[in-house]
Structure formats: structure tokens, C-alpha cells
Amino acid sequence: MTTTERDAEDGAHLRDAAADDADAALAALAAQLEASVAELSSARERVAELQELRSQGLSWRAIVPREARPLIVETLTRTLDGLGAVGGRFRREEAVALHGEGETIAGIGRLFGVSRQRVSAYLQEHQQLLERCAARRDRPEP
């Protein structure tokens, strides 16, 4: 195998790995969306209950201390945090996959509606994660 063929094979392997990472991030996003829909549906039901209690004339001081946990605001915070984390991972891995398929940093920035610097940060974050994983794998076990 020539050096050119080996380089092409290595490049294809890297593109496949980036696509696999993006696919895994997409699957995680789908799972998080499903969980978020369920949590938000529960929160919506709780909102209707609170509206009913308020229409009956109960004060907030009477309602809130008896409210079951998690509170609506806790559910919203947890849901948004989860979506933000998983969505960020997907965006990063999607940028890496696009770059691996030959898209330029500027082109990815245009597609995502972000600056070239932000896209570069996504690519650097991905590389740092890979390096941390490799360092953990290479550590001898005690």
C-alpha cells in the first residue's frame, strides 16, 4: 500500500469515526428530547392544577408549601439543562463530522449561524475530549 493510499484510508477512518460520534450524539439528543417531552407534559399538568387552585381563590402562600416536588421551575431547569448539554454535544459532533467530510470552518459557521471562531472552538473541544479519553486509556491501572 502506498503512502497516498494509506493516508486516504486513514482520512476515511477519521471521517467514519466523526460520523459515528455525530450519530451517537444524535441518538442521545433523541433520547433527551423524549425524556424532556415527558417531563414538560407533567409540568403542563401541574400548571393546570395550579391554575385550578388559583381560580378557587387559594393564595400562593397556601399553594406553594404544599406543592409536590419537583416544583415546576425545578422541572423546567432540569429539562433545559439536559437539552442544552446534549444539544451542545450534538452541535459539536455535527461540526466535526461536517469538517471531516470536507466542509470549511467558514462554511460550517454559515450553516450553524455562528462565527468561524465558534466553529474552531467546537473542533478544539472535540480534540480535547479525544485527548482526555486517550490519556485515561493509557493510564496504568493501580
Topology overview:
Blueprint: H1 3-55, H2 60-63, H3 72-100, H4 105-112, H5 116-138
Helix pairs in contact: 1-3, 3-5, 4-5
Task: Describe the protein in words.
The protein is an all-alpha fold and 142 residues long. The chain is 82% helix and 0% strand. The protein has five helices and no strands. The protein has helices at residues 3-55, 60-63, 72-100, 105-112, 116-138. α4 (105-112) packs across α5. The longest helix has 53 residues, at 3-55. The two termini are 40 Å apart. The relative contact order is 0.11.
Round the Cα radius of gyration to an integer and report it: 23 Å
Q: Which term fits the overall shape?
A: elongated
Beta-strand percentage range: under 5%
Order of helices and strands: HHHHH
pLDDT average, as an integer? 88
Helix content: over 70%
Work out the number of β strands.
0
Which structural class do you get from the secondary structure elements? mainly alpha
Largest sheet: none
Number of helical regions: 5
Residue windows where pLDDT falls under 50 for at least 5 positions: none
Amino- and carboxy-terminal Cα gap = 40 Å
